[in-house]
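Here is an idea for our session: we take a single protein and study its fold together. To get us started, please write out a protein record for me. Start from the sequence, derive the backbone structure tokens from it, and show both lines together. Go ahead whenever you are ready, and we will take it from there:
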Amino acid sequence: MLQATLRSLINKLWDRFWSGGISNPLNAIEQMTYLLFMKRIDELDTQKMRDKEKGHIQNYTSIFDGTIDLPNFKDPIPKETLRWSAMEGMKDDEMLYHLQQKVFPFIKQLGGENSFFTKHMDNAVFLIPKPSLMRDAYRTINEIYSEIDREISEGTKDGSQDSRALLNDIQGDVYEHLLDELKNAGKNGQFRTRTHIVQLVVELVFADISDKNVFLDENFRIADPACGSTTFLLGAFKYILTQFTSDKYIKPSDDNFMIGTTGDLLPANGHKKLEEDTFFGYDIDPTMVRIGLMNMLMHGITQPHIDYKDTLSKNYNEEARYKAVFANPPFTGSIDKEDINDNLSLKKATNKTELLFIERIHKMLTEDGTAGIIIPQGVLFGSGKAFVETRKLMIEQAELKAVVTMPSGVFKPYAGVATAILIFTKGRSTENVWFYEMKSDGYTLDDKRNPDHANSDLQDIIARFKTRNPQTDTDRTGSVQKCFFVPKAEIVENNYDLSLNKYKQQIYEEVTYIPPKDILAKLKTLEDEIQNDLAELQSIFQ
């Protein structure tokens, strides 16, 4: 959890950007990301050089070693002058010019000629317009990192935390707090799925994996076909790291998810596998692709595979490649039918993205691969042909493990639609479907979304899903528990309807009403008493 001081500093940074003329949240967060990244690579490189001097690592060459040729400069530029720390003491206008003309072009080339980072940074633009804004941002970011250093010092005193893992945690929290402001960008808020919902979906997808070493298999890859800021990919990354973290480094989050990102139990090749060949994300917004790349880098994933690609289009043909796929795809969107990939059979019946993404995700999965998707509840009961065919796909060509309905306030303040979580595994057969009716996600369901952890269903969902049993989870009244199984045959009989209320049994309690004649008698008695009291009052004033 981000401490109050850091939250205050981040809010201060936001306020300064808005007052400085960058009021669009997406533009602002993109520019802040660049500055935080400049600071981050300077500190990371400095730490690695210290480790090299102490003999902890071998054969490391500083990214600031040597010179670089840059446009508009006749002579090569010494890379040491491009460090964040090298700007200390510069005048405001000098600092802005130095960043625009030297440092920013330098970081755009950092990933190497063929990296996703370099590819998508090619069109990036440095938008900070004023020297005064640059100076204020520089100072505030230094304050943020000073506070991070203080928190790391406090957190590692008793040996219960690893300093580098804690640094990644706090930096990640800082960036996620920045991303929270995306909700103020109107439609752009669709890219931000709340962390506790992400953690819930990740837990459900990985619930049946008993051997943690499966995550390190060379063929184990995780994808998000509409990744936005990569929140789902990072949720999966943190879950896997937790499985390879000693108990002493694992702490509960505010929502009672156990998190430990040290990864101290990972084998020698473990970090390399996770950081270079596990996580893949795609998005159709170039700005979000860059933000997603930076988000992964800020969390310690050194070579993120985040690409600009429409996964519903004819330009995307990956199939049977991923062991896990997560998505909160755009709701109520549509796509030109001419652009839809011909391999998607639903193309003939619909151009609704929430349906097409389900088929796309099914195709992306390997045999025995599992998906966790957030969809609008209309997908569960829509009567149109495309809706029915989509549900049939998950039941007949996969094992639909769970349908978790969520209340409509979960995505407030920027979306009020009622949603559900679907968990299905490709290549298996559905015999029974597990339903759970979430009443609370641990936060109030109004626009403020204040904490209400005492009433949260999240941990109950996970616990009951892990111990689910179609022989015992049969009570559909909700009087015993909020979950129950429904046999496949019953669902097929109901045109593959997956709405919870279709199968939930309502309990109607008999209400006894007072007979009308008794009510009238009571009213007459009250009227007589009123008249007597009025008569008594009148006698007093006569």
Notes: Residues 198 and 232 are 6 Å apart (CA to CA). The longest strand covers residues 365-376. DSSP finds 17 helices and 13 strands in the chain. Confidence is low (pLDDT under 50) at residues 186-191.
